[in-house]
Amino acid sequence: MKAFKILIMILAISVALYEQVSAEKNIYIMVIAIAVFMYGMMQLSAKTPSKNQEKEEHDVE
């Protein structure tokens, strides 16, 4: 599943970059591609622990 998300993100950024260099830019396609990329980054980084996680656990106790 992680590889699928990365593939979709690469595809979204590729589409956004292609639209950026094209003669007739479609802003809606660029916005959707960037939104898909940001959503994918959010999903992938959700599992990364915070630097302050250990500190927060001590504060709760």
Concise structural overview:
With 61 residues, this protein is mainly alpha-helical.
What secondary-structure arrangement, pairings included, does this model have?
Blueprint: H1 2-21, H2 27-45, H3 53-60
Helix pairs in contact: 1-2
Succession of helices and strands: HHH
Straight-line N-to-C gap: 35 Å
> What would you report as the Rg, rounded to the nearest angstrom?
17 Å
Largest sheet: none
Note down, in words, how this protein is organized:
The structure is a single chain. This protein has 61 residues and is mainly alpha-helical. It contains three helices and no strands. It has helices at residues 2-21, 27-45, 53-60. Helix 1 packs antiparallel against helix 2 (27-45). The termini are far apart. The model has no long low-confidence stretch (mean pLDDT 83).
Task: Provide tags for this entry.
61 residues, mainly alpha, 3 helices, elongated
